Amino acid sequence: MTIIDQTATDASTAPALPAYRLAGVTKTYTQKGRVVHALKGVDVEIGTGDFVTIQGPTGGGKSTLLQLLGALDVPTSGHVLIGETDLAAASPAQLASLRAREIGFVFQSFNLIPTLTAAENVAMGLEPLGLDRAERDARVADALARVGLSERGDHRPGELSGGQQQRVAIARAIAKRPRVLLADEPTGNLDEQMRDEILTALEHLNAEGLTLVVVTHDSAVATRARRRLRLDRGAIHDITR
């Protein structure tokens, strides 16, 4: 695994590393015999504790970029760094460990198991960590409290509203205490009221220091972020006002 050399400094005064640094990132793949250039020389830095949204047309590269940030894929060329770790040079085992411990995922679909309670669904996300029962239960309770669902831990998904189900999904993602939370259209299945409910929950987590990267088509979501990026035809632009 490649590590970027850092000038030796006192740990108490050293600035925090960015959550992500992307340099010269390209991603090319073949689809039905046609070469697709999904990302073209992307250079971008996402600060630790930042709240960033990514917008752009369908096919513009958003999903490809999110897969790279989530250590679900590696670039064709260039470097994707989370902290000091170069994901492009990491082994499959190292990538799996990063996904399990450093990166939380939230999707448009809640992906909850309907026969399990909210607490049990959150606990499922901790299975790869091999925690003892006391630590697991403490993390589940903490995660549900952070999204305002302490009183709903024994409810199954069918007994919860759409917004509450998405908050369970967020709790599952943050229970591992990740470095970053990646969200792909997290409000896409919700009405306006529930959308605002989820955005408020995400903003509270960001205020606690969690780095957020959200892919969205909804400008009402994007304008709540501290920073806005746009991906179009594989090229990235900062459109923050």
Protein architecture, described:
The structure is a single chain. The protein is an alpha/beta fold and 241 residues long. 30% of the residues lie in helices and 26% in strands. Strands 6-7-8-3-9-10 form a six-stranded mixed β-sheet, with helices on both faces. Helix 3 (118-124) packs parallel to helix 5 (162-174). The protein is globular. The N and C termini lie far apart (37 Å). Mean pLDDT is 90; it is low at 1-12.
Please describe the structure with a list of short key phrases separated by commas or semicolons:
6-stranded mixed sheet, 30% helix, disordered N terminus, alpha/beta, globular
Set out the fold topology.
Layout: E1 20-31, E2 34-46, E3 51-55, H1 62-69, E4 77-82, E5 85-86, H2 92-101, E6 103-106, H3 118-124, H4 133-146, H5 162-174, E7 180-184, H6 192-207, E8 211-215, H7 219-222, E9 227-232, E10 235-238
Parallel strand pairs: 3-8, 3-9, 6-7, 7-8
Antiparallel strand pairs: 1-2, 1-4, 4-5, 9-10
Helix pairs in contact: 3-4, 3-5, 4-5, 5-6
